[in-house]
What we know:
InterPro entries: Trp_repress (IPR000831), Trp_repressor/repl_initiator (IPR010921), TrpR-like_sf (IPR038116). Helices cover about 70% and strands about 0% of the residues.
Amino acid sequence: MTNISKTNLEPEAEQKLLKQFSNLFADISSRKAQNLFEQILTKSERIMLIKRLAIVLMLEEGFSTYKISRTLKVSDATVRSIRHYHRKNEFNFVLGAVKKTEFDYKKFLDVLDILLLAGMPPRGRGRWQFLKESLRK
């Protein structure tokens, strides 16, 4: 999906950069965060992150590796890799944050399901109307 340089950063430099990057998101509204994500990440990077979050949430809901990989159109190896970390409770912070915030992960999975089953809506006016209506329910 995404290409990453094979050159590694020094661990200390990586930690400093990660802290600065997270501070960028810490004090902004969700709308501004969305704009920031849209501007800083490519479409494939955004999709990758969305799918990774979906995998974690689906694992938490007890879905099988097969069901997750077929639903999200990701490889079994990707799901198994994330499942490995999930079993080691390495996503507890993510899951806690999801449960604490106004993030409705059931609705997130429903919308993701709609998009994956139906595909992207056609171009033009009213393109996302079906999605807006499903979110209002």
